[in-house]
Design brief:
Structural class: mainly alpha
Strand content: 5-15%
Largest sheet: 3 strands, antiparallel
Number of helices: 15
Number of strands: 7
């Protein structure tokens, strides 16, 4: 078995890029003989899993393969075993042919004693040399420059084989369905454009144009408010934000949908019996909604006090002059009062009640509209927490 001249390897490494100087996964034993160190199976399993979930042409698969081959240190044995996990029969055939073609092009440029691939051959580089069949023999017999060339050629062959065996749909045919989120549509379109033969400088403008033209009608309406010169990131953030708000807005619309006036009158009558409200002739009026209770049993009044709150100067919290919780003795009896316990229990001053008036309207003049005002402090006023704290 021919022995490797490690002195020449050191000389060759000095002329190679830094990435190639990392050598291959080889460890030296106490007897100074290099030994084979296999590829981490977890890395290969991660690639296989990503192919099953995302597809062979996905960005995740490409990134994982680049990470595995990025150090230019893959032995021919490891390359073949890894690619058997990546490709099926047709893909493996294409990969082998592309790999050998890439290596032959490299060998054709090898001339002179200083070339990294001097005195090498296709059999050595592909692991078909009878003396270099096992990974241990390859680790001991191949030079670092040969390992680097083999790894780079294999990575380019993998890229070519991926495009051949799993050619994505043309980017001109990808449309956003009504039920597909915009970010999912962007991912599919981006993958198709990345795998196309378009120049790199044209891919960005093409992607932007396709996003505007091939999205669904709902997305087009959202994009109308985005300026034509806006970046792709701005478009994606704007549409994603509006899509996330859509379910909330739909729920609010359903909760505040118009109900029969009789329902509002019944809820107002219940509050009147509890002495929470009283008939009113106040000139003030703010909207009130009748919404279902969270428990699903009956309805409750939701008073929109935003107009009233604009007239109120916020007071802020009040200093309680009480010690911190850590200063309270262990056996000291305490009462915990929740803010919700104060709703509808603190009386409003008579001069302020008219500002909290509302109407129950009967459409088409079915009967006279009802006017009420609150007698107790209700939910929604800006200074309610402060008043609760003072009381």
């Amino acid at each position: 078995m021919p022995l490797t001249d490690w002195g020449k390897v050191q000389t060759a490494l000095a002329d190679l890029p830094e990435a190639a100087a990392r050598i291959f996964p080889v460890k030296k034993l106490d007897n100074n003989w290099p030994t084979y160190s296999p590829v981490n199976p977890k890395d290969v399993n991660a690639i296989a899993k990503a192919i099953a979930e995302k597809g062979i042409n996905s960005t995740m698969v490409s990134t994982l393969i680049d990470g595995l081959f990025g150090n230019d240190d893959m032995l021919p044995f490891d390359i073949k075993q890894t690619c058997r996990m990546i490709f099926d029969g047709a893909g493996m055939i294409v990969f082998k042919q592309e790999w050998e073609d890439n290596l032959e092009k490299m060998l054709a440029k090898a001339s002179g004693d200083q070339h990294p691939l001097r005195n090498s051959s296709l059999q050595r580089l592909t692991g078909r040399d009878p003396q270099m069949v096992s990974p241990k023999a390859q680790a001991q017999g191949l030079r670092a420059s040969e390992i680097a060339a083999v790894t780079r050629a294999a990575r380019e062959a993998i890229r070519t084989a991926c495009r051949v065996v799993a050619k994505p749909s043309p980017w001109t045919t990808i449309r956003q369905a009504e039920s597909v989120r915009f970010t999912t549509f962007v991912d599919r379109l981006q993958a198709a454009i990345d795998a196309s033969d378009l120049p790199s400088e044209a891919k960005g403008p093409v992607l932007e144009g396709c996003l505007r033209q091939q999205c669904n009608q709902a997305t087009k309406e959202l994009l109308w408010s985005v300026p034509p010169g806006a970046s792709l990131a701005t478009m994606i953030k704007h549409v994603a934000k509006e899509e996330n708000l859509a379910p909330v807005q739909a729920a609010i619309g359903a909760a505040m949908a118009p109900l029969p006036a009789a329902v509002g009158a019944a809820v107002a009558e219940r509050e009147l019996e509890k002495n929470h409200i009283e008939p009113s002739v106040s000139p003030w009026n703010t909207p009130v909604f009748v919404i279902p209770k969270r428990s699903g049993e009956g309805f409750r009044l939701l008073h929109d006090l935003r107009a009233v709150n604009k007239k109120i100067q916020p007071m802020g919290p009040v200093q309680t002059r009480l010690p911190g919780n850590s200063f309270i003795p262990t056996d000291q009896p305490c009462a915990v009062i929740d803010i919700k316990d104060c709703f509808f229990s603190i009386p409003l001053h008579e001069e302020d009640r008219e500002r909290f008036a509302f109407s129950v309207i009967f459409p088409n003049g079915q009967q006279p509209n009802l006017r009420f005002q609150w007698r107790v402090l209700l939910q929604g006023m800006i200074n309610s927490p402060t008043i609760y704290q003072i009381v």
